[in-house]
Write a structure and sequence with these properties.
heterodimer; A: alpha/beta; Rossmann fold
């Protein structure tokens, strides 16, 4: 009897664990991913007929991740604009950052794809491996850092100057804080924001710093606390992180992680939220202010047009506000401060005109001192060797030396709660 | 357990003494057929797709191209390796559900050799060190709960399970130590330029070496369990510890030895993953195989040769499910639903093979056996 009991126990636990284990791979909702390109075909059709291109897309998760959903929407938008038919692109979802990525890339190449995109940082090395094997296929990897040093003509990196979008979102956050201060909800000294980050990685550091500087530009007394989850997608940890920040007295939350954890925690607590990757207004009608996101469609279209016209694809491609890659969602008037839309438009214009720089060294200090020179680790190596001077003309020149961000300084006013996750 | 009222239960379950082989396979065939019918109904009801097309897509996803067959073989090899690893422990009625952790520490030891010694020792020596250290790490990870079980009779189920979390955190720690670039939380491919410590590739076949190693291991494990003295000791300890003691088997020694073998082979699976295919280490590299292997081993009733089939079945289902997702743009959950239905019927059929259901008409007469 004891043995049967222990056997039953084992089976229950094991099956429970298997179920838990597979949950991350396969979140609940079912949604048809492919949509028919809707009548926009002729609009941006390139010179050569796009009949002989076939695109393969590799996604880390599926549409339940805001990050991957943003890539999927960009991909569908680009395919529709290019007039590609449904059998001219293949989506592979839930591809982990391991050998599976290499296998998936090779399978896509076998299936006749001549351009293959991957969306997650950890896919990079496996994309390079596949690129070495298929010299005639173009491999494009978002967020990676190695294309400019790898020396492969068919392997490319892309990112966008999303720090500008974060800055604009930060302006909206600062205005909301000002409004709450004026309403007497708290004093100017108590204006503290919270930020849920994934890793202590430059991409995240660059993001929260630009967000903070945007808020500081309109609300000078603001401070910020950052907590890290140690995962790009961990709904529970993100929710707990947001709740911890709210309990610490943060008046407004933003995040750089890919689940709905932080936005929904904010909606429950009634704390304003500045989102990322796309609008969360449907789930958070009372607290969502605005979201910055990268629109990947311009990059996808750029690459396809390069291939059709026989041109070389840039090793590093950085999308900007001007290319339509850095975008803000609609401002939610219900939660945002009055005049937010106008202010964002004004700041955006001066960013585009080059009058304003996000990382202007006169607006922040590091360890109490001004930043006059900084060597960043632009060429990725295991020893993190600083190799490139990035402070130029009075500002930290982000995303100019390579597409992926490299701002990894700790500026004053931002307090990191837990860097060892 | 027995009901208080006088009426006899309508249904009576009794263990079958034996069942002719053809009957057992007939039951399995009916189960698979029923599973496919239910899958077809579910598919049409939920998606409106033609179920035959969906089945064909599943098949193509697993066997469609030469590359897909190789990937299938590779996945079967790794899953089979872990299943072989947990089998001796299970035969001993030692519930090793710590395969996941044993794979991770084996992989971690491999990665450590590759990162720390990659450019310091000749490649052959490096690979020898990787093999030894990965098996040793796995053996230690499996040996700790075994020693505690042998000495203090601790609960091995909980102990091996908890060791998984310790291993995961250990890997998470070293990933941060070795991460490239800083803060990224990823190591990336180790020695991508020098290939130091990469297990050799046979011809142009990336996964052939892994498949061969596991094939040899399968045969060895079969003979170890069925023909060797140690294999017999394992079986006796599993059947009854008291009997084992009575005939002079040192039970504690058998428990520790068997678990070290079990953990060592899991460590070897870690080596094949880190040194042979992925060339990196992450907390999720084992992909739940430590648990899936439990199902593989049980379905095959701990026969290593049958495990080739059961691991093939599970990998086929998962590759097929992934293909449906891609072709029909469905969520992964849908593929998992079909996999679940098929497994439910297959596991269910084993019940009907092992037990007889009798519908009792009255106290004396027994109804026909029903399958």
């Amino acid at each position: 009897m004891k043995k049967i009991l222990s056997l039953a126990l084992v089976l229950v636990m094991v099956l429970g664990l298997v179920a838990c284990g597979s949950k991350t791979e396969a979140p609940a909702a079912t949604e048809a991913a492919a949509q028919t390109p809707a009548g926009t075909e002729a609009a941006a059709a390139p010179e050569a007929a796009p009949a002989d291109v076939k695109l393969g897309f590799i996604f880390l998760h599926d549409e339940n991740s805001t990050y991957d959903l943003n890539f999927m929407n960009g991909a569908k938008e680009a395919c529709a604009a290019l007039g590609l038919s449904e059998d001219q692109y293949i989506f592979r979802t839930n591809i982990p950052e391991g050998q599976e990525c290499y296998d998936a890339a090779c399978e896509l190449a076998d299936a006749g794809c001549n351009i293959i995109f991957a969306d997650s940082f950890g896919h990079e090395d496996y994309m390079i491996q596949a690129a070495q094997e298929f010299p005639d296929v173009q491999f494009c990897h978002a967020t990676g850092t190695k294309a400019h040093t790898q020396g492969l003509s068919n392997y490319h990196n892309a990112f966008a100057a999303i720090y500008e979008g974060r800055y604009l979102a930060g302006v909206a956050a600062g205005m909301k804080l000002n409004e709450m201060i004026e309403a007497g909800e708290f004093t100017a000294e108590e204006a503290k924001m919270g930020y849920v980050g994934a890793f202590t990685y430059a991409e995240v550091v660059s993001g929260y710093t630009s967000f903070y500087l945007g808020a500081k530009s309109v609300c000078p007394s603001v401070t910020m606390e950052v907590t890290f989850t140690g995962s790009w997608y961990d709904e529970t940890a993100e929710k707990e992180g947001a709740n911890k920040l709210i309990a610490n007295g943060c008046k407004l939350i933003s995040q750089h992680a890919d689940s709905m954890g932080a936005p929904t925690a904010c909606e429950t607590a009634g704390v304003p939220n500045v989102s990322y990757n796309g609008s969360t207004v449907a789930a958070c009608p009372n607290t969502f202010i605005v979201s910055s996101r990268i629109n990947w469609a311009p990059y996808y279209e750029y690459v396809v047009n390069c291939v059709l016209n026989g041109e070389a694809i840039a090793a590093d491609w950085t999308g900007t506000i001007a290319t339509g890659s850095v975008v803000l969602t609609d401002v939610n008037e219900q939660a945002a401060a009055a005049g937010t839309v106008e202010k964002i438009a004004e700041v955006k214009a001066s960013l585009e005109a080059g009058e304003l720089h996000v990382f202007d060294v006169s607006t922040f200090t590091v360890g109490g001192e001004a930043l006059n020179s900084y060597l960043a680790d632009v060429d990725t190596d295991p020893a993190y060797t600083p190799d490139t001077e990035v402070v130029e003309n009075g500002y930290f020149n982000e995303s100019a030396k390579r597409s992926a961000p490299y701002f990894d300084l700790q500026i004053d006013g931002i307090n990191l709660l837990d860097t060892a996750f | 357990m027995r009901k208080q009222n006088t009426a006899m239960p309508v249904l009576h379950i009794s263990k079958r003494t034996s069942l002719p082989l053809y009957k057992a396979w007939a039951i399995r065939a009916v189960a698979i057929l029923l599973a496919l019918v239910v899958c077809a109904v579910v598919t049409t009801a939920l998606t409106g797709l033609n179920p035959l097309g969906v089945f064909k897509a599943m098949f193509d996803g697993a066997f469609g191209t030469q590359r897909k067959i190789w990937i299938l073989g590779q996945n079967v090899a790794i899953l089979l390796c872990v299943s072989l690893a947990v089998t001796p422990a299970f035969k001993m009625r030692f519930w090793n559900i710590g395969g996941e952790g044993q794979i991770l520490v084996g992989g971690l030891a491999t990665a450590a050799c590759m990162i720390l010694l990659g450019d310091k020792v000749p490649n052959w020596l490096l690979i020898v060190m990787m093999i030894l250290s990965s098996c040793l790490a796995g053996a230690i990870w499996g040996g700790i709960p075994a020693i505690c079980k042998a000495k203090w009779n601790t609960n091995e189920t909980l102990f091996t399970l908890m060791m998984n979390y310790v291993a995961t955190q250990l890997v998470a720690f070293f990933v941060i130590v070795w991460e490239v670039p800083k803060g990224a939380g990823k190591i990336g491919i180790i020695n991508q330029d020098t290939h130091a410590g990469w297990l050799p590739q046979i011809g142009s076949y990336k996964y052939l070496l892994n498949i061969l190693i596991v094939a040899v291991l399968t045969v060895i494990m079969y003979f170890y369990l069925t023909r060797s003295k140690q294999g017999y000791e394992i079986a006796v300890v599993g059947e009854s510890e008291k009997t084992a003691r009575y005939v002079g088997i040192k039970v504690e020694k058998v428990i520790v030895r068997t678990m070290m073998i079990s953990g060592g082979i899991c460590g070897l699976a870690g080596l094949l993953l880190v040194g042979g295919t992925d060339h990196t280490i992450t907390t999720t590299i084992s992909g739940g195989r430590g648990f899936t292997a439990v199902m593989v081993a049980w379905l095959a009733k701990f026969n290593p040769l049958v495990m080739v089939l059961t691991s093939l079945l599970l990998v086929f289902l998962s590759r097929g499910a992934s293909e449906i997702t891609t072709i029909y743009a469905l969520n992964h959950s849908f593929g998992d639903i079909l996999t679940g239905i098929i497994l439910f019927f297959i596991i269910g059929s084993e019940f009907f093979i092992g037990y007889r259901l009798s519908f009792l008409k009255n106290e004396q007469k027994e109804g026909k056996g029903n399958v």
